[in-house]
Structure formats: structure tokens, C-alpha cells
Design brief:
The longest helix has 22 residues, at about 95-115. This protein folds into 3 domains: about 1-80 and about 270-465, Rossmann fold, CATH 3.40.50.10490; about 95-260, Glucose-6-phosphate isomerase like protein, domain 1 (Rossmann fold), CATH 3.40.50.10490; about 465-495, no CATH class. The strands form 2 sheets. It has a 6-stranded mixed beta sheet with strand order 1-2-11-10-8-9, sandwiched between helices. It has a 5-stranded parallel beta sheet with strand order 4-3-5-6-7, with helices on both faces. By secondary structure, it is an alpha/beta fold. Helix 7 (about 135-145) packs antiparallel against helix 14 (about 320-330), helix 11 crosses helix 12 (about 260-280) and helix 12 packs parallel to helix 17. Helix content is about 45%, strand content about 10%.
Length: about 500
């Protein structure tokens, strides 16, 4: 049935972008949605009414509406692991029990924050947040985007096991004025716990008598944190049903709530809740995450696009492509359907990107004239994040909009080296500003887009078994040395002089 749909989609006429605009004077308004202070412009994609009608039929066939309700009701949408995915409950959308638990655990986090501000740990100037993957990418994005105008604490996020990352993070920290937040859903993550041990040793070397007294645990396994030596009063749990890459809304967001204040944290949640309400109630043809998923699948399936590029024309959003790489590729980078059958068509594209205008002078050559067709997503803000000459922001926005226009328009030349084919698609997401509420809505948009893509593809976006194999082999190397591996791996272990 699904294969039949892809055949019908591929058989549709393929007018150019220029033809789509020429044939529809209302195309901009018809393919632009505005909500939660964000403007989503899909008009420079090749979607048309026929494609949307077909996709809407696929959504019905694949049960997107029912899956969406299952997500928000707390049903076991993570079928391979038999559990719910209740990150939306952290924003107030979900089963009564899940929402109630989320509010109780958020209140616990606020109580600890109030104690820190009241001086329970002495004078605190720094927070060292240690995690990896979703336990680090979300907090790092939030603090980098929203903490540039000052924050209550200096926050550094360490994820890489490379000791150089830890050394750089603590270089200018005072161990007597530092709290360590260890973020791990299972509290067994090798990289995170090794980094945490090194942070505790840094405190001991700095003269702190009780470094464990400066330790805060953010985890879904509080018993593991307790075993590791964290006092129960400084453990901030979150629900097992909240996945790592969807966890910035719960206690994993502790460093953001600490640095920017509780009001900013609540605004972040409310912005995401507004997108939850839109995704849950809007018809598919007027639903921003669903339309974005239609666009993603159109290019992956009918135009054989293997990648999607995301460019933030705003320095505050520079870490968004990194965040989306995990969200999209760890969720939907699957080759097996949710019911255990081989996937016979492409799944998630490779997500990559950068920051405008830097990227224009690095990778846009390929976007305009390369042999790969790459859908591009531009993200910009109407208001700037600085008080410098307005010419800075005007030039930034002009460049952003010009790139989208140039990709579509192209330029014909008899000199093939100077010929631009054009008809290259892009989506523009224009924010009113970069605020906690708007950023919350934007991140929730990407979460729901990822979910919609998964349902339409028939995959489970909430497991990630592909992450585990490398970990298992690394443990095998650590335990057994070079024996039992391929000749190349054994030679590399010996050449590095690991002494295992």
C-alpha cells in the first residue's frame, strides 16, 4: 500500500518552482503558516495541491491522526521497548498522571534552585554541566541562544570524553564557587561518569573537602545516582518515558533554568505547549510539522535527496544544526519498520548545516552549482540579538532571503561555469525574535516534524539501538585489548600504544 503511494507520488507532474509561482498568484499565502510568532514559508518547495492531497491520503493510511493521539495520551508509541514517549507532558500535554508527575518533579527542581539562590551551597558563580547526546545538546543550545545578554551563573557544558574539553571548561572556574550537574538518563553512561570523576578530582585538587556535596544528578534512575554517591536531596529525577534527545524540557534543562531563571524556563515550556496544541489540532494541510514532513519525504523519495541542509542566519541559533542532527538522524535513521520488516525506501536524510553568512563562503557553491539536489532550510529572526549598527542585521537578512531567491531563480549563461540551474528548493522559517517562548515552539516543531516523518515512513523514532554497537566494541577493546578484532583495528590499537 505504501509502495503504491510512492509510485503515485513519483508519477505526478513535476513543474518547476517558477512554474508553480506563475500558475498560482496566491502561492505565498497558501503555503505560508504563521503561529507562535514564527512564519513558516514552504512556497519555495515543490509541494502543490496534488502532492499534499496524496500525502494526506498516506497520513490516513499510516494512521497519523491516531498515532498523534497515542503520543499525547501516553500510549506505548515506543513499540520496540514497550513504553510511552512523554516529553510533551513536561509542557502540560499528555495523560493526567504524566502531566502531574512532570509538574511535581519540576517543583522539586525549582525548590533546589531556590536553595542554591538562597546560599545553601555558599556563593555559586559557576555550573559545570556534564552529559552527552541529548543530555548535553539541548542545554547547550538553550544557554548559547538565550544567555548572551547575561545569566545568573556561568555555565559550561562538557560532553566530549577528550580530557581537553574538561580542561578548557574548568580553566577559569573557581572550584569553591562551582556546582557540578551530572546528566545521564541511566546514570551508567561511560563518558559522562568518567568526566564526572575528573570534575570531582579537579575540585579535590582545588582544595574542596567534600566535592560530592557540590554534585547534582539529573537522571531517570535516581537509585543509580544514589549508589554513585549523590545525596537524595540533590537528585532531580525525570520520567523514564522521556527520551534523551527529547529531555531538555525536564530536569536535564536544570542549567538553563538556573542560568536564565525560572520565568524563562516556564516561557520555554509554554512556547512548546503552543506548538503542541497546533500539531494536535490543525488539519494536516495547515499543520506546520506535518507539512514539513511532507516536504522532507517528497524530496527524499521522489528526488532522491540524501541530505537536508539547515542554515541559521542568526548567531544565537548557531548550535541548532548540531541539535537537529541528533534529533532527526537518531530518531529516524532506521532500516526496519516499527513492525519489524525491512524498510524498502529511504528513511531520514543526513541533516547538516551551519551559520549564515559564514556558510555562503564555504559550502553554498555546491548548493547552487553542484550535482546534488539538496533541500535547504533557512532560519532567521526579524529582531537582532545585538545593539550594533542596524546595517549588520539588515545585511544578514538580505543575504538570507537572497540565497533562497537565488537557489530558486538561478541564472542562465552560455558559459557553463557561470550557469546556475536554479529550481532548487528551500524553506524559510522566520522568527519574530529569539526568545524562550519562540525557541521552545521551534524545538517542539522539529520534534513533531520528526514524529510525523516516522509515522509516514512506518518506523519507530524512539529507539536507538544503532548507538549501542560501537559502545559494546569499545568495551570489548578495553576489556580484551587488540585480540579478536579485524587486523586493521588490532593494528590501530597497537600503533596507539594503548597498553591494554
Amino acid at each position: 500500500m505504501v509502495e503504491e503511494f510512492w509510485g503515485k507520488l513519483a508519477a505526478l507532474p513535476k513543474p518547476t518552482l517558477a512554474e508553480l509561482f506563475a500558475n498560482d498568484a496566491e502561492r505565498v499565502s497558501a503555503y505560508t503558516l504563521s503561529l507562535a510568532d514564527i512564519r513558516f514559508d514552504f512556497s519555495k518547495t515543490h509541494l502543490d495541491s496534488k502532492a499534499i492531497a496524496l500525502f494526506s491520503g498516506l497520513a490516513e493510511t499510516q494512521g497519523l491522526a491516531a498515532a498523534r493521539e497515542a503520543l499525547f495520551s501516553g500510549a506505548a508509541v515506543n513499540t520496540t521497548e514497550g513504553r510511552a514517549a512523554e516529553h510533551a507532558a513536561e509542557r502540560g500535554s499528555g495523560s493526567a498522571d504524566a502531566v502531574g508527575q512532570a509538574k511535581a518533579l519540576q517543583a522539586r527542581m525549582r525548590g533546589l534552585l531556590d536553595a542554591i539562590e538562597a546560599g545553601a551551597f555558599g556563593e555559586i558563580k559557576h555550573i559545570l554541566h556534564i552529559g552527552i547526546g541529548g543530555s548535553a545538546l539541548g542545554p547547550k543550545l538553550l544557554i548559547d541562544a538565550l544567555g548572551r545578554d547575561g545569566s545568573l551563573y556561568d555555565v559550561k557544558v562538557v560532553s566530549n570524553i577528550d580530557g581537553a574539553a574538561m580542561a578548557e571548561a574548568v580553566k577559569h572556574m573557581d572550584p569553591y564557587a562551582t556546582l557540578i550537574a551530572v546528566a545521564s538518563k541511566t546514570f551508567t553512561t561511560t563518558e559522562t561518569l568518567l568526566n564526572a570523576e575528573s570534575a570531582l578530582q579537579w575540585m579535590r585538587d582545588g582544595g574542596v573537602d567534600d566535592p560530592h556535596g557540590r554534585l547534582i544528578a539529573l537522571t531517570a534512575k535516581p537509585e543509580k545516582a544514589l549508589e554513585w554517591g549523590v545525596d537524595e536531596s540533590r537528585i532531580l529525577p525525570f520520567a523514564e518515558s522521556v527520551g534523551g534527545r527529547y529531555s531538555l524540557w525536564c530536569s536535564i534543562g536544570f542549567p538553563f533554568a538556573a542560568a536564565l531563571g525560572w520565568a524563562a524556563y516556564e516561557e520555554l515550556l509554554e512556547g512548546a505547549a503552543a506548538m503542541d496544541r497546533h500539531f494536535r489540532t490543525a488539519p494536516f494541510a495547515e499543520n506546520a510539522p506535518v507539512l514539513a514532513a511532507f516536504t522532507d519525504l517528497y524530496y527524499a523519495q521522489t528526488r532522491e535527496c540524501q541530505t537536508r541542509a539547515v542554515f541559521a542566519y542568526d548567531e544565537r541559533m548557531r548550535l541548532l544544526p548540531d541539535y537537529l542532527q541528533q534529533l532527526e538522524m537518531e530518531s529516524n535513521g532506521k532500516s526496519v519498520t516499527a513492525d519489524g520488516k525491512p524498510l524498502t525506501y529511504p528513511s531520514a536524510p543526513v541533516t547538516w548545516g551551519g551559520v549564515g553568512t559564514d556558510a555562503q563562503h564555504a559550502v553554498f557553491q555546491l548548493l547552487h552549482q553542484g550535482t546534488h539536489l539538496i533541500p535547504v532550510e533557512f532560519i532567521a529572526s526579524i529582531l537582532p540579538g545585538h545593539d550594533l549598527d542596524p546595517a549588520h542585521h539588515e545585511t544578514l537578512l538580505v543575504n538570507c532571503f537572497a540565497q533562497g531567491a537565488a537557489l530558486m531563480q538561478g541564472k542562465k549563461s552560455d558559459d557553463l561555469a557561470r550557469n546556475y540551474a536554479g529550481d532548487r528548493p528551500s524553506t524559510t522559517i522566520l522568527l519574530d525574535d529569539v526568545t524562550p517562548a519562540i525557541l521552545g515552539a521551534l524545538i517542539a516543531f522539529y520534534e513533531h516534524r520528526t514524529f510525523a516523518n516516522a509515522v509516514l515512513l512506518g518506523v519507530n523514532p524512539y529507539d536507538q539501538f544503532g548507538v549501542e554497537l560501537g559502545k559494546e566494541i569499545a568495551k570489548g577493546i578495553a576489556d580484551n585489548g587488540p585480540e579478536g578484532f579485524d587486523p586493521s583495528t588490532s593494528a590501530l590499537i597497537a600503533a596507539a600504544g594503548l597498553g591494554l
